[in-house]
Amino acid sequence: MRQSSTRLLTMVRSLVPHTREFAIIGGAYGVYMLLRALLIIDAPIVPFENAKTVVEIEQSLGVFWEPAAQAWALDNIHAAVIILNWVYIFAFYPIIITSSVFIYVRYRSHYDYYRPIVLASFGIALVSFAIFPLAPPRMLTGQFIDTIGEYGPAFYSSTQVGDLYNGFAAMPSLHFGWSLTFGYIFYRSGNKFLQFLGVMYPIIMLFAIVITGAHFWLDAVGGALVMIAAFRVVGAWRKFRTVHGKTPLRNFVRISSIQMVGLR
Fold first, then answer.
1. Distance CA 131, CA 129 (A)
2. Cis before residue 248, ω within 30 degrees of 0?
3. How far is residue 243's CA from residue 212's CA, in Å, rounded to a whole number?
């Protein structure tokens, strides 16, 4: 009986760090989604003005292709549009979560390397959402069609789901930014199939976010820039820790305390 209790206690203790890890990640994402939802503004004039600005920028660059691309897809490959609706939803979170769990279990050092980068992208994206609230193309009636709202899946376009997130958080597109990051991770694996998936995953997601009217091309560029910034920020922090020690803040406090004592 005692051995069984000891084994159970050992098993429970072994699960504690893993449970804590997933609680941290889940909690961070929950806070991110909550703060993102709280950024909703009462008067949606600014997001639509910003959408107009994005359209004008793309027109000036000669890359305002979204309406023509969506119209062509609906007229010529309607079935593919339906598929992209589902890709937008089910090729994002399921792949991100499954891949993260697999990397955590099999390649812990890789997980530890990329985790702070993804967490940093939360903060950078929130700053962007606050500074530049943007209405997605699907809200620009007359120019675009909300393909998910028109053709399903119906649950994703329902009011209940819509109330859970900020509809004006289109810039940057983390759908693209994270798919690009995980595509990079897949490609670096060295496995031929994963390398192929690593190339195709962000490309397919790019088509999905544009054809569904969820994002502009520039939102995808913004998503890529957010991830580049996250890599840079985390890289700079790691370099700082390497130079100043693993706990620079603690060392700073300790040294400051010693100096204060010496001044007395």
1. 6
2. no
3. 47
